[in-house]
Amino acid sequence: MRRAVGALLRKDLLVELRTKEAVPAMALFSISTFVVFHFGLDRSSLDGSLAAGVLWVTLLFAAVLGINRLFVAEVEQGGFDGFLLAPVDRTSLLVAKALALLAFLVLVQLIAIPAFAFLLLGPSLWQALPELLAVTALADVGLAVIGTLVSAIAIRTRARDLIVPILLLPLLIPVVLAAAQATAPLLSVDGAGPLPGRWLAILAIYDGVFGLLAYAIFDFLLED
Amino acid sequence: MTADLALELRGLGRRYGERPALQDVTLDLQAGRTLVVFGPNGAGKTTLLRVLAGLLRPHEGDVRVLGARLPDEGWRARGRVGLLTHEPLLYRELSARENLRFHARLHGVAPGRVDEALEAVALRVRADDPIAELSRGMVQRAAVARAVLHDPALLLLDEPLANLDPAAAEVLEPLIGRSSGRTRVVTSHDPAGGLAEGDIALGLRGGRVALLAPVAEIDERRVRELYT
After folding, report:
1. ipTM > 0.85, yes or no
2. Which of B211, B202, B204, B209 lies closest to B25 in space, CA to CA?
3. Could you tell me which residues of chain B have a Cβ less than 8 Å from any Cβ in chain A?
4. Global pTM?
């Protein structure tokens, strides 16, 4: 399985490097949304729960753009057929696509979070950076696993651009809620508070449950 | 299974929704022989190839490919079948070499085989250009290299010479032609060319078997009647 995951992941990253379809669009969307919030809220700086909410809702919608594109090459260029002809575990496609999406999210956040700090955030990010990285890592795993699952469900439908947000957003409410709740004390104007372990645990459990669910059903999604 | 039978189909049926695409297809094909499939557009030729490749489930009948009963034992045939369709199954943004390396990794084929395959299809000079920048004939040659990269026991070829000039067809003959010695299922619209390629001719019309005979026992006229 490791061989197949490596081959698929390498191919996805190479295709993204050539086409630059997903990551630049996601990053640009994030920055544009922060600018819209900047003017829409008519505030020069945000902190606490409002800042955390703006950050995670923006990252969620940016993720939708990447999730919509995740399996497009497999359908339009015969990637599914080429993969299904190979003597490999079909779950390797799930793992590789989730890792590719995770890599895209990390790259986008490397641009979007500093942009958020520059455009909207009142308190400094530096003090809370390690805790914020922990929250981001757990939330990204949830976005990647659930995003891959939903993308695989939607890709064979005619209205995939509609199906993805309709299925994805309700499933990701707990991830965004937990990530925002865990992030809010880190962005407090009075200095970063302690990391709320309860919300981190919820994120970790949610990631685990959907990881197992995706592993269990992904084979069936590839059946004709 | 009979030891040297590559294909055993008994009453194969396949539907798309309510519409039958294949009905009651029954035939055997011995290893090392070629089945050539004729039929007008929509007759079920491509569906037959996709069922044999394990990409579509058979809905009726007993289907064995290389001894593996489909769909339950499809995993046993995976990696032993090479498929060449109208779609090259290559990523447009990647070069022929990158595409073949990707498929070589998936099939557990030694990396050195990629250069051999590129050489065999006379594509080494353009091997590092993206597929999107190659002519249709070159893309077809790259697709052939992909289809035979893992030395499949069964080749499924959907009009393999489409888009190819005579020189390119000659280059590919040792890989996918009669001289390859492989077990092949080849679809064709060319009665003379198809009969020259095959050992057994299958004619499909509306998803049903309209002709099934050794090519030595039929002539081009019988094949042309399928299209009238």
Report:
1. yes
2. B209
3. 53-57, 75, 78-83, 85, 87-94, 98, 102-103, 105-108, 130, 146
4. 0.91
